[in-house]
Structures are given as structure tokens and as C-alpha cells.
Design a protein that fits this description.
346 residues; alpha+beta; Hypothetical Oxidoreductase Yiak, Chain: A, domain 1; Ribosomal Protein S8, Chain: A, domain 1; 7-stranded mixed β-sheet; 11 helices; 41% helix
């Protein structure tokens, strides 16, 4: 089903405000979710309205979100997310990180005491737009087995890197450290479809194609031992160093089990401290153009730069409407109906 971007945004803002969020914060979070849906990243889009609604009603989300600076020292800072919306804490942190990088050349801003932050490229790309480079990561509830283990211990602990590239489209890589994001397994369970047999194991450590069994078991790390190592490093930086929770103490945002305790880290580099931004941008633009012009492997019609397809998908969705499945639309409409709204998505 195609939903107009503005209609989805308006519905998201309405729901977030009904949960207790402020006008400004609801706009920030709604924009993040709608942009995720527009890019096809539905696991971090308006789907999150349901757990937000459930947590708010259960008193397990502190709204309105009050993100504050717990520590502010030169090029470094720690943001306390106030157990509110992760998108608000992420927005506050990236703006502070960009400001500090402009002042000091580089900045490190950590986030603690927040919830699901959504898609990390949303924040890293803000630094790229400002002529900078950003590396962002966050931890999550136990869902992935460390390499060699049959037990979920690590989160999928995503990592994003975005860089100014001399054009409207930045270099933008955003990935979970598991073979697949856990949200895709949740979606498969909701849709009643099987998953590939190399995504996850059941609770006994056996490979499974049943998404419900996978949700009781563990995801497998991307790149085997390599992905496992990076996920551990992210937990150390985003969790232990920030003062947030860390494996196996984080809780799932999708279950009413109390504070999630999510932590995140941002490292931002101001390009102009090392060379003129324009010169750097021209070099990166030519570099990426060379990659796109390489001989194509069998089965490939085009070589895409990380972030390129998502960018074009977002632009097309804003113009032509966002594709959401019937279950996703029904979930939003159920909340709107519970609020007494007579304006449903259609």
C-alpha cells in the first residue's frame, strides 16, 4: 500500500504527542521514522510506533524526552537520553558532535540511558552534510551469539559511517553486525514466512528457517569471528565507556521488561582541519565514480555506492508515496482508532 509521506508523518506526530512527547521532539522522531520507511528500512520506521505506544501506556518510557549533557569537556561529551525516545537523544548528540568537531577538529560524544535509536545513518549523514565524516555505533539487547557460542549474548550492535563526498549523496554505510537485522526476523514472523537457514539458530543452537524459533535463539554474526569481534568492541565503547547498559543486561525495546539502557557512540571528524573540504570532495567524488565504472560481475547491471540506492528510494517515496504492507498500516490505524482519531491512513 502506498501512503503519502505527509500523511504518515502527520499520523506519527499525532501518536507520539498522544504518548506524551513534546511537539518538537515528536517532529524529530516522526521525521526519522518516516525517512526510514521512505528508504525501505521499515524495521526502523513507523513500525516503532507500536512499541513506543505500548511502553508509554505501561509507564516504561519517560516522555517528553529530556536529553541532557551529563558531561561536557572540550571535544568530548556524554548525553543522558533521559529514558526517552532514542531518535531525540541521537539528534541532540549529533548536533553537539558536529558543533564540537567544528571547534576542535574532532569530537567524541557518547549516549547513555536511551532507547531504540533507529537507523544510525540518519545521524551520521547530518555530519556528512556539514562537510564532515562521522562514525556511529550503538548496542542493543542480546540477540546474537558471539562466534563459537550457541547462546544470544551480544546485540546486533549496528555501525554507520558517513562522509561528505562532494555531492548531494554522501558515502553512507549503515549495517548491523549480525548477518541480518533482528527486525527482519520479527517481520518474517509477523508475515508468517520462512527465513534463510544461515540467519539464525534456535534455542538449541541448530540452524532454523522458522522466524519464531530464531527469535527464541540467536542471530549469527556477519563475517563470523570478524563481525563478532566488532560487535564486542561496539559494546565496550557504546555501552561500558558511556556508562550505559551492556551485554547481557540490555533489555529489548519490543518487550515490556523495563528500561532498555541503550548506549551509543559518535566520532565526528572535520575534514577542513586536514585539507580543504572542496578538494577532499572532488577526490572522493572521482574515487566513487571510478568504482561505479569498474567491470561488473556476473548478474550485476550497476555498481552502487553505499547509501546511493537508499537515497534515491527516499526521494522517490517522498514524491510517489511510501510503500507499507497492510499489517504495518493496520498497526498504525489501530493506535489512531484507540486514540479516538477519525483520520486513518488509507
Amino acid at each position: 500500500m502506498k501512503i503519502a509521506y505527509q500523511d504518515l508523518y502527520d499520523a506519527s506526530v499525532k501518536i507520539l504527542k498522544a504518548c506524551g512527547e513534546s511537539d518538537e521532539n515528536a517532529a524529530i522522531a516522526a521525521k526519522s521514522m518516516c525517512r526510514a520507511d521512505a528508504r525501505g528500512i521499515t524495521t526502523h520506521g513507523s513500525y516503532l510506533l507500536t512499541p513506543i505506544w505500548n511502553r508509554a501506556k505501561a509507564g516504561q518510557l519517560t516522555l517528553p524526552t529530556r536529553a541532557t549533557l551529563e558531561m561536557d569537556n572540550g571535544a568530548t561529551a556524554i548525553v543522558d537520553g533521559g529514558d526517552g525516545l532514542g531518535a531525540v537523544a541521537g539528534d541532540f548528540a549529533i548536533r553537539k558532535a558536529i558543533e564540537k568537531a567544528g571547534q576542535y577538529g574532532v569530537s567524541v560524544v557518547l549516549i547513555k540511558n536511551t532507547n531504540n535509536i533507529g537507523w544510525l545513518a540518519c545521524y551520521a549523514e547530518e555530519a556528512a552534510k556539514a562537510g564532515m565524516i562521522a562514525v556511529m555505533s550503538c548496542n542493543a539487547a542480546a540477540a546474537m551469539a558471539p562466534w563459537g557460542s550457541a547462546e544470544a549474548f551480544l546485540g546486533t550492535n549496528p555501525l554507520a559511517i558517513a562522509s561528505y563526498a562532494g555531492s548531494d549523496i554522501p558515502f553512507s554505510a549503515d549495517m548491523a553486525l549480525s548477518i541480518v537485522a533482528r527486525g527482519k526476523i520479527r517481520k518474517a514472523a509477523r508475515d508468517g514466512v520462512k527465513i534463510p537457514d544461515n540467519w539464525a539458530t534456535d534455542e538449541n543452537g541448530n540452524f532454523t528457517t522458522d522466524p519464531n524459533a530464531a527469535l527464541k535463539g540467536a542471530l549469527l554474526p556477519m563475517g563470523e569471528a570478524k563481525g563478532s569481534a566488532i560487535a564486542i568492541a561496539i559494546d565496550i565503547i557504546s555501552g561500558i565507556l558511556s556508562g550505559a547498559s551492556y551485554a547481557p543486561n540490555l533489555k529489548s525495546f519490543h518487550e515490556l521488561g523495563g528500561k532498555t539502557g541503550v548506549g551509543a557512540s559518535l566520532i565526528v571528524i572535520d575534514i577542513k582541519r586536514f585539507q580543504p573540504k572542496e578538494s577532499f570532495g572532488e577526490k572522493v567524488k572521482a574515487y566513487l565514480k571510478n568504482i561505479k565504472g569498474l567491470k561488473k560481475a556476473q548478474g550485476f547491471d550497476e555498481i552502487f555506492i553505499p547509501g546511493e540506492r537508499k537515497y534515491h528510494s527516499e526521494q522517490k517515496s517522498i514524491k510517489d508515496g511510501i510503500s507499507l504492507d497492510d499489517n504495518a498500516v493496520k498497526a498504525i490505524n489501530d493506535i489512531l482508532a484507540a486514540m479516538g482519531s477519525d483520520k486513518l491512513l488509507k
